[in-house]
Design goal:
about 10% strand, elongated, UDP-glucose 6-dehydrogenase, 2 domains, alpha/beta, UDP-Glc/GDP-Man_DH_N, 6-PGluconate_DH-like_C_sf, oxidoreductase activity, acting on the CH-OH group of donors, NAD or NADP as acceptor, single chain, two-stranded parallel ribbon, 6 helices, Rossmann fold
Length: about 170
């Protein structure tokens, strides 16, 4: 059984115990954590052209089957334990949220100091350790939330928005 959903760490171990208990036999059942890394509005593209495929299982047989399924995708396969796969999904989402929060704070500094957030993030983005993803708000990707403390002149400049992930 393949679980694609984002689930709390340890959930797939519990699912395996429930399934094995319900079968009441020595049936060969493997639970695989195979989290999705999809952006809103680009699920098909992200599935076919993702940055990696995470496969979490304790079974060599299940891992081999998953490698066979994904053989033609041309993406690196990260084979780990189920718990690690579950945590990779959360850690990835949380890191992106952290990056967004950081850029929001830099935008606040830009407003206070008179710097331009787009210039600052462009300059930061050329550093390969940082990259330029998650530096801009895109209508298809973000919800716009207005802050009371920025409704004055910042609103007129279009700088009163904060980026929040939809995931």
């Amino acid at each position: 059984m393949i679980v694609k959903s984002t689930v709390p760490v340890g959930t797939n171990d519990k699912i395996e115990a429930i399934v094995r208990g319900a079968l009441q036999s020595a049936a060969d059942v493997d639970i695989v954590s195979n989290p999705e890394f999809l952006a809103q509005g680009s699920a098909v593209y992200d599935t076919l052209h993702g940055s990696r495929i995470v496969v979490g299982t304790e079974s060599a047989n299940a891992e081999a089957k998953m490698r066979e399924i994904y053989a033609d995708y041309g993406q690196p396969i990260v084979s780990v334990s189920r718990k690690s796969a579950e945590l990779i999904k959360y850690a990835s989402n949380d890191f992106l949220a952290l990056k967004i929060s950081f850029v929001n704070e830099i935008a606040n500094l830009c407003d206070i100091l008179g710097a331009d957030i787009e210039e600052v993030t462009e300059g930061m983005g050329y550093d390969p350790r940082i990259g330029n993803s998650f530096f801009t708000c895109r209508d298809w990707l973000w919800r716009i939330v207005f802050s009371e403390r920025h409704e004055g002149t910042a609103l007129a400049r279009g700088r009163s928005r904060f980026c929040l992930t939809d995931d």
